[in-house]
Amino acid sequence: MQSFINRLIAATLLLTAVAAVPAAIAETSVFKVSKGENSTYLLGTFHLLNASDHPLPAEFQQAYNAASSIYFEADLQAAQSPEFQMKFFKAISAPSGSTLQTLIKPETYMALEAFMAKKQMLITNFAPFSPAGSALMLTMAEYQKLGMMPEYGVDQFFFSRAQGDGKTIGHLETIDEQLSFIANLGKGQEDEMIMSTITELNTLEKSVGDLKKAWRSGNSKQLDKISLKEMREKFPDTYAEMIVNRNNKWMPEIEAMLADKPTEAVMVGALHLVGPDGLIELLKKKGYKVTQL
Question: How confident is the model at residue 14 (pLDDT cuts 50, 70, 90)?
């Protein structure tokens, strides 16, 4: 199991190549949602991938080709600005007058220090960060060791392609909204979040490998089991804020897309599509036809 910080990276804001499954018997994390003659594609993405994960399943390109407009979770253009870098640092920083050590229990700090020492990292370098920021930065560092980078992720891959192809590009959330989620991660459960992250980073390569296999083959039940079930049970507030509330907020925008003639492709973290509160289930309950490619 991945810690919920890991899941958020894999789902929202992350090995070796995953063996391709024969297309004749496999589905993917791409869905076509229809209402009469109108349709919109939902593509479950992995925000960080390896170069060896390309080419992506052909269904991703198929959905992209069919759409005149491409929507992403966040404003990826704004995320490349110096202003965003400043805001991001503020979002992961400890409140004024405090440090990481003052925000978590002594035993939690000692456990984190020991883990970082094994990774040849100094915990003092994390002093300016909040517990959520520390967990996020540490996790990102471990993903980078596996060669997983944003430039290989599904979102950035198609964002660059859409720019080159002159397609209309939109987003479901502002950068400020996304940074607000990061700033509030694990609020009230800081020690549990740190300890969970330490535990799960010890088996990161295997857990991410399992998640990627489930994503690539479109195994929605496995994605939910691996990544969301434990979050619902152990971190219900974070699950509500990061998954449920955002999905519900996006629904009117997706329904508006389905009410017009042009075809859109909406690319969001794969975990937003699966489970009882996922976009696929929400759309099915409203009577839309959903076909997994």
Answer: very low
